[in-house]
Amino acid sequence: MTGWTTATSGGCGAPEPDDHLVDDEHAEDRKARAAWSRLAEPGDDAAHALVMTEGAIAALARVRAGGGERRWQSRLPGLDAENDLSVLEGLGGRLLIPSDPEWPEAIDALGVEAPFCLWVRGPLALAEATTRAAAIVGARAATPYGERVAADLADGCATRGITVISGAAYGIDGAAHRAALAAGGPTIAVLACGVEQAYPGGHTELINRIVAEGAVVSEVPPGSAPTRWRFIERNRLIAGLSRVTVVVEAAHRSGAMGTAARADKLSLPVAAVPGPVTSASSYGCHRLLRNGAVCVTSAEEVAELAGRIGEYLPETLPLPMAVHDGLGPVDLRVFDALPLRRPVGLRVLISTAGLEPDTVRAALGRLELRGLAARDGGGWRRTRAGKT
Amino acid sequence: MTGWTTATSGGCGAPEPDDHLVDDEHAEDRKARAAWSRLAEPGDDAAHALVMTEGAIAALARVRAGGGERRWQSRLPGLDAENDLSVLEGLGGRLLIPSDPEWPEAIDALGVEAPFCLWVRGPLALAEATTRAAAIVGARAATPYGERVAADLADGCATRGITVISGAAYGIDGAAHRAALAAGGPTIAVLACGVEQAYPGGHTELINRIVAEGAVVSEVPPGSAPTRWRFIERNRLIAGLSRVTVVVEAAHRSGAMGTAARADKLSLPVAAVPGPVTSASSYGCHRLLRNGAVCVTSAEEVAELAGRIGEYLPETLPLPMAVHDGLGPVDLRVFDALPLRRPVGLRVLISTAGLEPDTVRAALGRLELRGLAARDGGGWRRTRAGKT
């Protein structure tokens, strides 16, 4: 378990300022934003713009007074934000709004597309968890290769304290969450439906575990169904909460391509994992690479992109060496010219290597020091170590 | 067999100008350049610069008179360019020098590093063959995946009339040459030894076939051994003769990485084929991709880089479609909101989709036209085609 911070306990978020009037306004804003998350679909730019300019409370009052768009009006009848909030509280969850200390600032980069609020379950504190975070996303119909790489990357991120953010889907998403949990690291699942549901159903156990150990997040209130549109808009949250979006496997129509596009629109780095060109599951990744995505092959390379600049520096790899590795061009030519058995004189070496006498002499000295060349009688030959 | 041009028959190259004096000088230049290719190692910048500034004949005369570097002097005793040329002629080969019409102009981009001459065997005319040419190179210790991809790329290049240039080595090189030959396309093997030898020995049959149907090229005269240094310098010829260098598989120390570096130095495009990140044989390719190489996954993508700009335009791929593919965001939201069985009225659709009445009406019209939505009683539902 890396030392990630736990959110302040349950309830619907603790208001920060002490003053009572401010408390009340904060609670009112929370309720109004919860209401807006039900009145308007994710990515309803007019709703977001209205809330942004007038504030959630005033904007809601306007709709209640019969103003605003008819699509919002049409959803007023069933609206009961207090009930939604108490459902969330009953689940041990909390609603985050921009004025909360736990609000993940990264998501404000979405501008007018930023969510009204976030419905959250789980102990992971979002503000801190999203300062070092990588979205690891990809195809539901992943290959064993893709799932393995997703797990390797997520494991490496988790052990470095980098939050693994994904969408809890089958395939790549699931592999990433699971590996992060297994490593005891922070992970966030962003859902397209309400946080009271586990979608997809086959991931109920996984999502419950993320609720218990990480965070499950949605911008739509409890009871909301996961529509195609909400999946598309959910992807902007995955991108916006992360410092880098890594696509592990993606066919040409994969939702992960949408997440990558949203990250790119936010000027956040997009990375793609290469795979066999013979695999349709890597088609999207290769298209991203052709369009300028960063090629990543290891958690270390993801970490370079997922944290603050310079926080994670690449380790140097220990590489296998041949005896002649690291020889300069001149030394290599003299080494090439040295016979394995019968020693030869300087004159022959000059001719064979095609180098000047002084150059050959200097190279022989260096090769001798490296244990690759030996004097033998009046001439020179390779040593046993130099016999490649 | 694509219609590539055959070189003018055998001998040591036909001088172009008719005038006898010029003929004599041309023959003299040819002999002097053949001599220089024996006196100086490939990439001996001082030798290349001397020949470039004084001309091969005058530069040779200077060395014969005791001038120039001692390394060249040291090789004068065994020098017999006329014999080298007659050996070549005996093999049915020809020597190309820059003033020959068949000289591949592309290689002049090497500047002072351009070869003195090219020792050539095989019917393929180099000047024309190198106007559309891709180097397909990679590891000797290739995987079946790498060899398959190399063959696919080479086949696709060959059938497009793009010359496949490689180094005749085991692994990727061999797979590329073989596929080009199988497709009846042009291929050039650039050797690090004299063209009278087949190196590696296990590729004797392959190299003989390239001699019979393509071109085998070297900058060193007959009898020259393939030293490590010559392999390194040979790689600059592979890069320089090609319009793009494609690395299919390469471990971190692969010679193909050197070829890519030489291509990059010449400001020629470098492309790399992605592979599984779990494969050490793709390590070099992924390093190249991280450093800005173009990601290529098909011969079509290589062809875009291998010919004159705009000569090969990418074909559009037929992609599998879902019924909701291509729907705009508004139509998708209305489609999502449509029930599969019991029809619903406009008011419900407005609320469910979160869209304005006019917007919903227009979207329903478009969905109806596409056969995805149907009127049913007073309401709307999805059609059978829309049941995904």
Strand content of chain A: 5-15%
User: Can you count the beta strands of chain A?
Assistant: 11
Secondary structure tally, helices of chain A: 16
Annotated CATH topology of the domain at 91-306 in chain A: Rossmann fold
- Overall residue-averaged pLDDT value of chain A: 90
The order of strands across the largest sheet of chain A is 1-2-6-5-4-3-7-8-9
Instruction: State the largest interface.
Output: A-B, 57 and 57 residues
Tell me the structural class of chain A: alpha/beta
CATH class of the domain at 91-306 in chain A: Alpha Beta
Descriptive overview:
The structure is a homodimer of 388-residue chains. Among the domains of chain A are: 91-306, Rossmann fold (3-Layer(aba) Sandwich); 329-382, Arc Repressor Mutant, subunit A (Orthogonal Bundle), CATH 1.10.10.10. Chain A is elongated and about 105 Å long. Mean pLDDT of chain A is 90; it is low at 9-15 and 314-320. Chain A is of the alpha/beta class. Chain A starts with 19 loop residues before the first helix and ends in a 6-residue tail after the last strand. In chain A, helix 2 (45-54) packs across helix 3 (56-64). A nine-stranded mixed β-sheet of chain A has the order 1-2-6-5-4-3-7-8-9, sandwiched between helices. The first copy, chain A, has a two-stranded antiparallel sheet with strand order 10-11. In chain A, 43% of the residues lie in helices and 11% in strands. At the A-B interface, helix 4, helix 7, helix 10, helix 12 and strand 9 of A face helix 4, helix 7, helix 10, helix 12 and strand 9 of B.
